[in-house]
Amino acid sequence: MEQKQSIYFAGLDIGGSTIKAVLVDETAGQVGEIIEVPSRVTEGYETCFKQLEDALRLLTEGANVSQDAINGVGLDVPGPSSDGVIWGQANLSKDWVGVNIRDAFSKHIGLPAVMVNDCNAAAVGEYAVRRKQVGGLLYLAPGTGLGGGLVLSGGKLYEGYNCLAIEPGHMSVPFRDEDGELPDCTCGLKGCLETWVSLIALRRCLKIELAKTKWAAHSLNSDDSTIENKAFRLRDLAEENDPLAVQIFKQQGVILGYAISDLLRLFDPGLVVIGGGLTETSFRDKYMEWVMEGFEEHCWPMHKKSPIDPQKTTTKIEWAQGGDSAGALGMAFTAHDLFG
Q1: Per the domain annotation, does 2 fall within a domain?
Q2: For 225-274, how does the pLDDT look when each residue is reduced to its tens digit (9 = 90+)?
Q3: Which of 37, 213, 214, 252 has its CA 20 to 30 A from that of 14?
């Protein structure tokens, strides 16, 4: 009797500087190590396709698997897309926009492919690493902006009709600058959550604070570097308990918690996962306390504890577990479910 050949599924996470790749088998178990190669997304999608091919080759060689055994590929992109077509440039070069990258890559490698945006992929990855998760999962990732994704109970990703759903960074929040104005957002609107919770927000708030007499003697005011470089230093300063850095990050945490309480009234997922670079900071426990402070001030009591059984927690808020590989894992699992 001829032995059945094992089949595999690849997940490719296309970042601004690196592509992360992972392989899973037909049981959805990871095979081999996670691979990283340069992404070169700013050089055009055809150049990036060559990098994706390199990643697939390194994946299969590292796992001692024939590339012919791959049944399907999942890839995520750092930009808005719908049904495989890139709708906005984001961190990509202009030639990506308007192109059905999913179908073009599928044809390029001769394998079926599926594609979502990077935060949706990370949401699926975070759901997948929690094998006992029975409810939904709302993923929030403070980074340069504020991305998000929603996985429904049972593991189905919710993208919306146009695949443009769950953009928490661009929901409106009732917070204003000291002059009473709503801050401008990069999306063209005002008062978006991203203007308060993101690296973009760190730069804006830091610039405002450094102009105050209160912080005239702060080390960042004697630094001649750009506001972008100063904002990058804030995380290290917060780890050293610097008062200015702590103040700014506390504001971000409280406002994020406030927004989470609103999102629960829409989705009630049962689990909220916070990802992004903050997951690796030494002050993350303190940041989570600030998130919970904002959440508890604004949430419905039933989103904390069951009114029927007070011992039952109705919503958990926790840090991401998948690390930098969550997106790649999410796409490998998506390919497994779709093409397995």
Answers
A1: no
A2: 999 999 999 999 999 999 999 999 999 999 999 999 999 999 999 999 99
A3: 252
Q: What single string gives the DSSP state of each residue in 199-255?
A: HHHHHHHHHHHHTSGGGTTSGGGG--S-HHHHHHHHHHHHHTT-HHHHHHHHHHHHH
96-123 pLDDT, tens digit per residue, is 999 999 999 999 999 999 999 999 999 9
Q: How far is CA 72 from the centre of its chain?
A: 23
| Those residues with Cβ within 8 angstroms of residue 144's Cβ, 6 or more apart along the chain or in another chain | 198, 199, 200
- Which residues is 114 bridged to in the sheet? 74
Structural domain span for residue 154: 137-320
Q: For the residues of 249-272, what is the DSSP string, one character each?
A: HHHHHHHHHHHHHHHHHHH--SEE
Structural domain count of the chain: 2
Q: Is residue 1 part of a domain?
A: no
* HEC-encoded secondary structure of 113-133: EEEEEHHHHHHHHHHHHCCCC
Q: Residue 145: inside a domain, yes or no?
A: yes
Q: Assess whether 49 and 190 both reside in one domain.
A: no
CATH code assigned at 48: 3.30.420.40
Specify if 26 maps to a domain: yes
Same domain, residue pair 122 and 179:
no
Q: Are residues 155 and 297 in the same domain?
A: yes
Which of 3-12, 50-59, 84-93, 189-198 has the lowest average pLDDT?
3-12
**Cα 145 to Cα 78: distance, rounded to the nearest angstrom:** 12
